[in-house]
Amino acid sequence: MITIENLTKVYSRKESPAVENLSLEVKNGEILGFVGLNGAGKTTTIRISSGVTLPTKGDVYIDGKSVTEEKPETSRNLGWIPEFPNYETNAKPIPLMRYFAGYYGIQGEEAENIITRLLKEVGLWDYRDRKLRNYSQGMKKRFSLAESLIGNPGNLMFDETLNGLDPEGVQFVRELILSQKQKGKAILLSSHILTEIEAISDKVAIIHHGKLLKILTRSELKNLGLERITIEIDNIDKGAIEILEKYGEVKSTDGKVLLSTLKLSGEKYPVIVEDLVKSGYHVRRFEPFGESLEEFFFKTIGEN
Description:
Alpha-Beta Plaits, 14 strands
């Protein structure tokens, strides 16, 4: 569980706080979408939570342990994926992952098995001999995902991980996040791609000028008028239709991987995506109609 209590960060006395009196909680098995404009304080919050930056006031607790006072313990149970992963010039994937495995006390055959499995899971096994400097930004993010999972931490923070990814990359990260949620992990997901946040988050926190403006639960999101959804998946078949019919009315177009007009409360959205993913379907699009999270977001920050 991730608990942020009364967090404040001031970089300069002449400037407004980057984060001001922020409190949040992410429970085990829960995804919290963390949204805000550039400079709103999302990255600062995540950097403090991961122990990279010290707060001016307040603290962050990982499974009840203080990040500021018990950093070695908290860092071992928190996986952090930065927006722009950066590695040493000559670093290669396997030696670097061995180093991080050692940090978690994982060595020998166990370490090699974990490294092999993770590099295969993120699609980088065939590129294991390349230097990381020669990886594309998308490949670096995939490697960062693998790196963050070496010690199987119970908590994960994604800082704009979806930014700059192609549709295949977004789909991959989405499915990885959902698989980690199913394992009972607490996940904080920062992103400006609000349709993705809306599709998989259990709660959504809106931050603006360093201040928390609103936390929306799924039961509250249903009041935004989100009654219809367009869903696009690969290889639509009878099984996919049957899954979706559990949640409402289903219509599909001729030869197109498109499902629409599902009528249900917003609290069911993550459940639908999880249901499809668990059954082996790749969700390429999940788009609610009505007042979207994006519209609500801009209305909220406009009032503040």
